[in-house]
Write a structure and sequence with these properties.
Blueprint lengths: L9 E5 L3 H12 L3 E5 L3 H20 L5 H9 L1 E4 L10 E4 L5 H11 L8 E4 L6 H6 L7 E6 L8 E6 L5 H13 L3 E5 L7 H17 L5 H11 L6 H8 L1 H15 L8 H9 L11 E2 L6 E2 L2
Parallel strand pairs: 1-2, 1-4, 2-3, 4-5, 5-6, 7-8
Antiparallel strand pairs: 6-7, 9-10
Helix pairs in contact: 1-2, 7-9, 7-10, 10-11
This protein binds nicotinamide-adenine-dinucleotide (NAD).
Nicotinamide-adenine-dinucleotide binds next to helix 1, helix 4 and strand 6.
């Protein structure tokens, strides 16, 4: 296990959802002290349960030892306010994909975190430059975009805002390395690289469903067997979260002003229904039984 980057012993993670708990997991596993915040204790309890389960899987696969798992859990502190972020060297914001929410989180954090702390957002699509400019340190602000599931996926996209300085970028490259992951650098344009390519493909799959070109099953089967994708696009949409997919399409549509990025009305309808995918128990598949069942 590699050791933490020296100037960042403690990492504050905001949001304990799908991404936040994975981010807390990998930092703590690689020796960082982690403080993870969410709005309510039950969300934090659920996040710790997920981390415990995922560490258990890593033990079974002989990737880590029982002792490493114990040490990882002991390094994570769960909080419902931000006071414990007072000595964080790095903040990773992983709350829901809403710009107003993210900006208000950073404005609440600024009086608490040390002046030299690096601020990052795990946003999938929101402008890093715009988020950075709402803080007092745009030069120490970056996009740190983990992939889902965080403990498994090797890539982290690093996105510099227009004002991000070289020192911050170099430090964050080292941080990614210290987590045993690989960095790919992306310029700060809507949705960066992975989601700029991936989410319009998912949106197109929803259009093929909407237009009756295929069923949920046939679309997913076609892309798995026909394009060698490990997951079908609708299965993947449920895995990412349909609200997140829709938010990314809206950012592409607004940010690039090209009609090819218009979100499929069926995707909008699923989000309006609260059928957000796996995390809600239902999306393009219903996950409440033993086997996922297509909902159309
Ligand atoms: P999620 O809905 O699972 O989790 C978001 C969490 O943030 C929730 O637990 C919520 O209670 C919490 N939260 C909301 N307001 C908060 C606040 N003020 N303080 C603390 N916590 C707060 O969402 P997610 O899938 O984990 O996505 C989080 C971020 O990561 C988004 O910006 C998303 O775009 C990005 N992202 C998601 C994926 C993915 O595949 N899901 C991949 C990469 C990046």
């Amino acid at each position: 296990m590699s050791s933490p980057v020296p100037q960042i012993q403690k990492v504050g993670v905001v949001g304990a959802g799908q991404m936040g708990n994975g981010i807390a997991h990998v930092f703590a596993l690689h020796g960082y002290d982690v403080v993870m915040s969410d709005l309510e204790q039950p969300k934090l309890d659920a996040a710790m349960e997920t981390i415990r389960g995922n560490l258990g899987r890593q033990i079974r696969k002989e990737m880590i030892t029982e002792a490493e798992s114990e040490a990882t859990l002991a390094r994570i502190l769960c909080v419902t306010d931000l006071d414990a972020f007072g000595d964080a060297g790095l903040v990773v914001e992983a709350a829901a994909e809403r710009e107003d929410l993210k900006k208000s989180i950073f404005s609440n954090l600024l009086p608490i975190v040390p002046e030299k702390a690096i601020l990052t957002s795990n946003t999938s699509s929101i402008s890093i430059t715009r988020l950075a400019s709402s803080t007092d340190r745009p030069e120490k602000f970056m996009g740190l975009h983990f992939m889902n599931p965080v403990p498994v996926m090797r890539l982290v996209e690093l996105i510099r805002g227009i004002a991000t300085d070289e020192e911050t970028y170099a430090t964050m490259k080292n941080v990614v390395k210290s987590l045993g992951k690989e960095a790919a650098s992306a310029e700060d344009f809507p949705a960066f690289i992975v989601n700029r390519v991936l989410v319009p493909m998912i949106n197109e799959a929803v259009y093929t469903l909407y237009e009756g070109v295929g069923t949920v099953k046939s679309i997913d089967k076609a892309m798995k067997l026909g394009a060698n994708h490990p997951m079908g696009p609708l299965e993947l949409a449920d895995f990412i979260g349909l609200d997140t997919c829709l938010a990314i399409m809206n950012v592409l549509h607004d940010g690039l002003a090209d009609t090819k990025y218009r979100p499929c009305p069926l995707l909008v309808k699923y989000v309006e229904a609260g059928w957000l995918g796996r995390k809600a128990g239902r999306g393009f598949y219903d996950y409440r039984g033993d086997q996922p069942v297509p909902t159309r």
